[in-house]
Design brief:
The complex is a heterodimer of chains A (128) and B (197). By secondary structure, chain A is an alpha+beta fold. Chain A is 43% helix and 22% strand. Chain B has 197 residues and is an all-alpha fold. The chains are: A alpha+beta (128), B mainly alpha (197). Chain A: Belongs to the NifU family.
Chain lengths: 128, 197
Amino acid sequence: MAYSDKVIEHYEHPRNVGSLDKNDEGVGTGIVGAPACGDVMKLQIRVEGDVITDAKFKTYGCGSAIASSSLVTEWVKGMKLTDAMQIKNSQIAEELSLPPVKIHCSVLAEDAIKAAIADYQKKHGTPE
Amino acid sequence: MTVAAASLSTSDGGLEPFDPALDHFARLGLDRAWRVDRNALEDGYLDRSRRYHPDRHAGADAATRRAALEHSAALNEAYQVLRDRVRRAEYLVKLGGVDLDSSDPQTGAPHPEQSFLIEMIERRERLEAVSSGGTEALEQLRDEIEAELEQVFDAGVAALERGDTRAAAAELVHRRYLQRFNDEVGALLDELEAGSG
C-alpha cells in the first residue's frame, strides 16, 4: 500500500517526538492503543491558562499512526483546550490522505489528544 | 472439449453447492473446539482439496466450475486459519462474538487496561537503553517477551476452554500488543546483526 507524501514526510521527519514530565501539574498525558494491531501512542500537552503551549508524542506503530500523532502535536500547539477538543479524526485522515484501512490510526490520534486533555482537566478538577 | 477433460468431469460425480455460511471447522469436518486432532485436520484438508480441485472440474458446467473455485478458496482459508494455533484461538473468539480485527465498541477487540498500555510505552522507552547493551541484552529481552507471549496465550486458551470468550479476547489482545513489541525487538536485533556482520 502506498503512503501519501504527507505521511512519508511526517514519518521521516516527525515533529515533537519526546516526553514531558507526566507528574508536572501543567502537563496532560494521553496513552492509547489499537488492539487490532498492537500500536501504542503517548501524546502529552503542556497547558498555560487555557492554551496548549507545547506538545510531545511517542508512537510505536505504523507510519500512518506516527504521522497522525505528529500532525496532531503540530496542530494543537497554540490552540485553546476547547478548540483542541474539537479535533476530529476525519480532519487528520483528510490532511494525510489516509486510505480506509488506515483510518483507525487517525482515530487513535484523536483519542490520544482527548485523553491528554482529560488527564490535564482531571489534575485541575475541571471535568467536562 | 477434450477427452481427458470429459473423463475428469464425469469422474467427479458433481459437487454440493457452495455454502458460504459454514464455519472453518465445519468446512474441514471438525468439531468446533480449541483442541484439534492434527491428523483429522490434515486428512480433512487433503480429501477435500482433491475433491474440490478446480482442475478436476475443468470440463464441468459453469456452475460446477464456479462451485469448485469457491469450495477450494474457502477450504484453503479454513486450513490456514485452523493449522495456526494463534489464528485458531482468535477465530474461536470471533465465533464467540468478539472480532479482534474490529474496533467496534460492542463486538470489536476489547481495550486493555490503562496500566498495560503505560507499561507497553515504558518498556519501549527502556528499549533504547537495552539496545545500547548490544545483541546479548536484546536477545535476553526477546526471550523474556517470548515467555510472556506463551503465558498470555495459555491464559487465553484456558479461558476459551472454559467458554469465557471475553476473558479469552482480553488475553489475546494482550498477546497482540506483546507480539508487536517482540517484532520491534526482533527488527532491532536484525539491524545490529546486519551492522556487525
